[in-house]
Design brief:
With 319 residues, the protein is an alpha/beta fold. The protein has helices at 7-10, 17-24, 28-37, 40-47, 51-65, 81-107, 127-135, 151-159, 221-232, 246-254, 298-309, and strands spanning 70-73, 76-79, 114-119, 143-148, 165-168, 177-186, 188-192, 202-204, 212-216, 238-243, 260-262, 272-279, 283-291. A 5-stranded mixed beta sheet has the order 4-3-5-13-6, with helices on both faces. A 4-stranded mixed beta sheet has the order 8-12-7-11, with helices on one face. The chain has a two-stranded antiparallel ribbon with strand order 1-2. Helix 3 packs across helix 4 (40-47). The chain is elongated. It starts with 6 loop residues before the first helix and ends in a 10-residue tail after the last helix.
């Protein structure tokens, strides 16, 4: 046997605020229209719903709240004191929804939308500014929200929805991500300019087995690569300092604290010598990653195409 329950009956006294919000939200615009016109028929005509549907919605709204919002005289209505209080909050909520709708529409605008883009610290001084400058030649109004961090932190923000794309290394391999290799960057052994190897141009990494290293912190992609290359060369590096930024490490090398495996600097730093590592092959892959199945707005899709078009030229001087 079927049972018909009024909304007041199925709204339990123990319902939480979230349940009430979900229940009331679809009716706020209806309520505001009736309150504005003080006439059900005119309000129904404005918002394009049958008058009977609107009348029933207002009755249900009052039942759900447990208070009378309107004093009725035929199809003409006026707000009660409770109705005036509720209208002020309803109008603020509707205005916030409209502002949010405007914001997401603006972010998705093909010509002036927004791209949330993450990148490695070592890409920040030259590579990323050059990429954005080149992209904006054809997309001058596209806006960027930029996040500079290490690889694992950016992947977390990608999964959380804070980023649309990230430029990272190593290129991630995970079932929920799509990643594409874009370029390769050779790493150098950086030594103080008065170091025993400083007169050399090339070096085998095994020749630095007895040195003290300064490295990035565990969790950074470059740290994992450093540890792996040293293991391949037959030793575990003795670490004197773990930092968060490559140029800090260069400064510490110049101060004589140790040696480091680093990508080339944007600008040559005095006090250090950068040696080509001949064995093992010292390089890191740079790639772009995004969430699998995540729909792209037009500006994100355009920037993604641009990045993929620079495969093999990512680290070269932008055109």
């Amino acid at each position: 046997m079927a049972h018909n329950h009024s909304s007041r009956e199925w709204l339990s006294p123990n319902s939480n605020e979230e349940d009430m919000g979900l229940l009331l939200a679809p009716r706020l615009a209806y309520f505001a229209a009736v309150a504005r016109h003080e006439h059900v028929t005119r309000a129904a005509q404005e918002i394009g719903v049958p008058q009977s549907t609107l009348s029933r919605a207002m009755v249900r709204l009052e039942q759900d709240l447990g208070v009378a919002l309107f004093a009725r005289k035929g199809r003409t209505v006026s707000l009660t004191p409770a109705g005036r209080t509720f209208l002020a909050s309803a109008e603020r909520a509707l205005a916030e929804v409209e502002r949010s709708a405007d914001a997401v529409r603006a972010d998705a605008d093909p010509s002036a939308g927004r791209v949330a883009f993450g990148f490695l610290h070592t890409m920040g001084s030259e590579t990323v500014p050059g990429l954005i400058r080149a992209f904006r030649v054809d997309h001058p109004k596209v806006r960027f929200t930029l996040v500079q961090n290490y690889g694992e932190a950016m992947i977390e923000r990608l999964r959380a929805g804070d980023l649309d794309l990230c430029l990272t290394s190593p290129v991630p391999d995970a079932p929920d991500l799509v990643a594409r290799r874009l370029d390769e960057q050779r790493l150098r052994l950086v030594v103080p300019d008065d170091h025993r190897l400083a007169a050399r141009k090339r070096v085998r990494l095994a020749e630095a087995a007895d040195e003290t290293f300064v490295t990035l912190e565990p969790g950074y992609g470059l740290r994992r690569i450093t540890d792996a290359l040293c293991a391949e060369a037959g030793f575990t590096p003795r670490v004197a300092f773990e930092g968060e930024e490559a140029e800090t490490l260069r400064g510490l090398v110049a101060a004589g604290l140790g040696v480091a495996l680093l990508p080339p600097p944007a600008v040559a730093r005095p006090g250090v010598v950068e040696l080509t590592v001949t064995s093992p092959r010292a390089a890191r892959e740079i790639g772009v990653a995004w969430l699998d199945g995540h729909p792209d707005t037009p500006p994100v899709a355009a920037f993604k195409r641009f990045l993929l078009s620079r495969r093999g030229r990512l680290l070269s001087e932008p055109e």
